[in-house]
Amino acid sequence: MKVHFLGGAGTVTGSKTLIETSSISILIDCGLFQGLKELRELNRLPLSYDPKEIDFVLLTHGHLDHCGWLPKLVQDGFKGKIFCTSPTKEIARLILMDSAKIQEEEAEKANNEHYSKHNPAIPLYTIEDVQQVLPLFKVIEKDVVVALSDSVSFSFFYASHILGACSIALDIEGKKLVFSGDIGQDDDILLFPAVKPKNADYIFLESTYGNRVHPNNNPLFDLEIIINNTYNKGGNLVIPSFAVERVQVMMYLIWKLKKENKIPDIPYIIDTPMGIDVLELFLENRKWHKLNYEECSEMCKTFTLISEFKDTIEVIYDKQPKVVIAASGMITGGRVLSYLERYITKPENTVALVGYQAEGTRGRKLLEGDKTIKMYGKIYEVEATILSIEGLSAHGDQKDLINWLTELENKPQSIFLVHGENEASEGLKNEIETQLQLHCIIPKRRQIIEI
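and the corresponding structure tokens:
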């Protein structure tokens, strides 16, 4: 059996792990590379394994770094089924359509304003390409065993992280392979703790925060201080946010503060059409999270929900202080750029980063103190206050990841640490080997390992 590490190795983006046997080929996740230019350029290259030869895709969840390359996979000849949970299907549809729309718009803008070195600039894929992917999705309930052949079966089990996210237990030709996908925090604000695996011959474990423990801070208190300080300066607070889960977490926290009269009575705006759609999914999929229907409904009444871009422009030019939550979370695209074009150069404004910022993204550069930011080919001076609210990550930290391994009834032959930058993976490797005496391997991208 061969394992091809096609992405998500040495980086947190582009997750793609291919399992190849003489009778079947299965791709676990099919993510888009993000962040560093040399990573983004990989999205344009053909897969090192022929997509026509892949029988199935198993999707852990609907984030772009796990599903965002599916249109290219289909474009290049994949015709098999894409298995996922029901919320993951809907989230992946929203994310892929949004990704294609942004790419089409940015290519058009680059061509009109002549700031791309490509002539013409061409989107990686279009809305039409996404529509070719959607009929291939097949929904599977978690904890149901699905046979792919006489000797291969799999099941999904709850992973926390975002709505619908699951780990995968794959029984393939006498071996049990477990893929964590992305694991949420044990004490996540909205989601239940991840289910731990009981048996595995090989484990493929994410390591996003493998070398650190989330700070023991109170995000609710931090958010209260940031909102009030920005209001007292007469400024606007912009919260770049992932449309899935993070927008809903921020809404929940602001709703709690508002109920307790701890923050001012100013406009609280959600400007992400996809984030608004995901709110509907939260209402429809209450068994996947902690909120009841009444809490969801009451929370939504606190906010102005914006879908149309003309309303975005209106809000941007409205001079009264406000709090805006807009995608994308790493400031790689989306509506948040329109706000930052006007607000980033003004010292009274604040930008609060509330999630993981991948290497090479605008969010990471702001977090590291860059004094300028490039958007749509123009350079903007960073005069706004840049802050980070820690402890809100949808990813478990080192303790959570090690804890996820503590109910194993047998000793796996190897744990492959994926979905992490090298320092994070190394940190997790050291701790797992020290605390649990389990053998860890950190694979490199395009490495092929026989098991």
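(Above: one complete record from the training split.) The chain is about 30% helix and 20% strand.
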